[in-house]
Amino acid sequence: MTITKIAFTALLFSLTLTACQAQRKPQTVAAKRVATYVAPTASEIEQKVDALLRQMTLEEKVGQMAQITLDVIGKGENRYSSFEPL
Asked: What string of DSSP letters covers 5-63?
């Protein structure tokens, strides 16, 4: 290939890329929507908890109450209970 063909190919390639970039619509600040977090109210949380408890069986409820957490299994003193006398 001659230098002329290489230069022509490079010019054609750069023009193609420029044309592709020009077709994109710039995003304006108004076009972007920012999701805002709305904290649930205490009554909404209570309703969800009540609905979940109604769905659970007795065995599931007992299992949740007797569930062992990682701090009990891990090294160190258990922060929820102590074997020392009161």
From this structure: HHHHHHHHHHHHHHHHHHTSPPPPTTT-------PPPHHHHHHHHHHHHHHS-HHHHHH
